[in-house]
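INFO batch 0412 | record 1 of 1 | parsing
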Amino acid sequence: MQSQFEPLICTKRIDETADATTFEFKKLDDSPFDYKAGQFITFEVDVAGELEYRAYSLSSTPSKPQSVAVTIKRVIGGKVSNYLLDHLQAGIALPAMPPAGEFTIENNQVSADILLMSAGSGITPCMSMARWLLDTQQKVNIHFIYSARSEADIIMASDLAMLNEQYDNFQLSFILEETESAEFIKGRLNVHNLTQLVPEVAGKTIFTCGPTPYMQVVETLAEERGFDMALFHKESFVPKVEEKQEQNDNGVSYQVVAPQHGKNFTITANKTLLNALEEAGVPIVGACRSGVCGACKCKVTGSVESTSRETLTAKQIEQGYVLSCSTRATSDLVVEL
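INFO prediction complete | emitting C-alpha cells
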C-alpha cells in the first residue's frame, strides 16, 4: 500500500488564527497536481515513532495546480493535527496519497446559485470551490456563509475579504457567536438568520462542511425552508465511530488468509475487514475509516458485503478490490494487498 504515497515538500506555512494554520506543498519534481475543488488529501505522519494517517480537505484551487494547501485547526486531543501545527515547517516532507473525495462541483447536482456554508475548519473545501469557480469564471453566483466563534477565529479572513472585493458574483456573510459589530450577524446559525441571509431558496445549491452538529443544523434548516434536497451536499468525510465489538455476530466467523504476509486468522461476521487485518498485524493503511479515501483498498477472493466503493474503478471492482474499512466477510477470504 505504500506505493500509494509520494513525498510532498512543505513550502510555506501561514498562521491564519491563533489555532489554525495553512500549509502549502509541492511535488519533488514540481509536476502539477490533478484534483477537483472540494477534495481532500491523506497524509502519513510519524508521531513519536508511530505512523498515523489523516485526511485534510484542500483549501487550494485546481486552477493553480503547481501546489496544494491544507488548513489545519488545533483540536483537543488532536494527535496528528496538533503535532503538525507544532512541528511542520517549510522544507519538511510528508508522504501523501493523491487527492480523493466526492464532495465536489463535478460530482454533484449544481445550480447557478450556490451557497457555500461552513463553520470552523470546514471552510477549507468551500474555499477551494469558491476559488476554483471564480478563477475559471464559471457563470454562477456564490454566497459564502461562514460561522465562527469570533472575528479573531475567522480562518482565511483576508482571502475572503479579497474575493468579496474583487468579484461581483461573490457575496460574503459571517455569523459570529461573539461580536458587537453591526457588519456581522451575532449568534449561531438558525432559521431566523438563514432566512435573513437567504430569503429566497428556489433553485439554490448548498455545499456545507463543518463539525457534524453544524452540518446537521444546516440540513435540518434547509429541509424546513423547503430547499430542493437534491441540491444539498454535505462533506461525507466523517470518520465512523469504532464498531461495537463482537455484537450481533450470532457466533458466525470465517477464516482469512493473507498469503503475502503469512497471516491466517479468524474474522467475526460483524467486524470490518480493516479492523481484522490490523489486529492480525497485516500492514494496511487505515486512514479515513469511512469509505471515502481509498487508502485501505485490497483484493479479496471470497464473498463480502461492502457499504462503500468510492474511489474504486469499475475495473478494480471487477477484479475483486474492496475498501476494507467498509467491508465485512460473508465467507472465508483470501486477501491481497
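INFO post-check: Residues 160 and 276 are 45 Å apart (CA to CA).
INFO record closed
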